[in-house]
């Protein structure tokens, strides 16, 4: 393997794993376009080996098995890296619906929804999502990230308080930063910590922000407890159901459906990039909230609407997922089988209770060595480094889908077992 002109031996020797992304955020420099001193050297030499695990080229669809480019060649892999939880991204009916929309409307919406990019298909999806979730209204965003960012920054003002779980997705935190509101954090999933945070801001207008499933840990929010605390402080609640929408609950209405708390959460947000297998975001709630947001969420009002071809696909995905609840059942069966087998191998999957599971490694150097070995053996899992997770929780993240067969999962488990144990020994003897 050659990375940035270095041989395999060179890249492995140069890899120190001591510096991380966090080390280049601050630093004196005259030109904002020039990275801080040492960055390019670090990027080229020190982490070239680790970096080659990221941004892999996929050579096919995000199916249970796919092909990626690895070490300069196509590499068939078992795919535990995609969010295609229900296996609908490549469903023939979805592709047919997308093709129909493509032929009728062309590729792009060619305008912001406010001015010119809203087709009847967009309106239909808004209405369908609102009805599906039992809300008065819903609005669409051209990205999930933009939806969270626009919603939080569009609703909160300088004197308000955003109270976020400290494992919240960056899109939520960035939305709060953009709004210039007060940003408070509470310890992950800890009702006592939320209570303390809300108590410190009594009398202020507060929004408690939680996620259905936390995207790195794969655990559910402790909804009942957190909501009870928020209610006791008369704080409003917002839920990000990015990873849970369509894949959780009897009808697919997310983690809030599982826990029976939908009517206690006035505003729900989700993405179309995970179980929907497409792209975009939405927020659904009271008509007054959505009416207001349409004017104040900048990522909505000042950005091109979703391509109609994507909207056509999403509508079909919702129809198929509703018609075939067995997809959700398969997903959950696969998730609990895979997790229990991993735990049987002695792999730490943290607090995961879902189809997202960390395989905790705990240090960057080891993660990098294991990551390459897994890939060479044909298993594709995502390396997750600090600051996405705390440094002592550096891990691989595996996402199981409904389309993985038992044979896929068993082969993946064999690869994990063959890789983790010998690499451990090798690491210990270095
Ligand atoms: C919890 C959460 N919210 C929001 C987003 C942003 O969604 P998208 O990838 O659709 O932009 C993500 C993305 O992974 C996420 O995990």
Short structural summary:
This protein is of the alpha/beta class and 430 residues long.
Describe the structure.
The chain is of the alpha/beta class. It folds into two domains: 22-33 and 50-79 and 326-429, Alpha-Beta Complex (Aspartate Aminotransferase, domain 1), CATH 3.90.1150; 92-323, Aspartate Aminotransferase, domain 2, CATH 3.40.640. Helices cover 41% and strands 16% of the residues. It has helices at 8-14, 39-46, 48-51, 92-105, 120-133, 144-155, 170-179, 191-199, 223-232, 255-258, 287-296, 298-301, 308-323, 326-344, 364-376, 406-429, and strands at residues 2-3, 6-7, 65-70, 73-79, 137-141, 161-165, 182-186, 206-211, 236-240, 267-271, 281-285, 356-360, 379-380, 382-384, 395-399. Strand 3 (65-70) and strand 4 (73-79) form a beta hairpin. The two termini are 21 Å apart. It binds pyridoxal-5'-phosphate. Pyridoxal-5'-phosphate binds at residues 143-145, 148, 169, 171, 211, 215, 240, 242-243, 271, 273, 281. The site of pyridoxal-5'-phosphate has 14 residues, from helix 6.
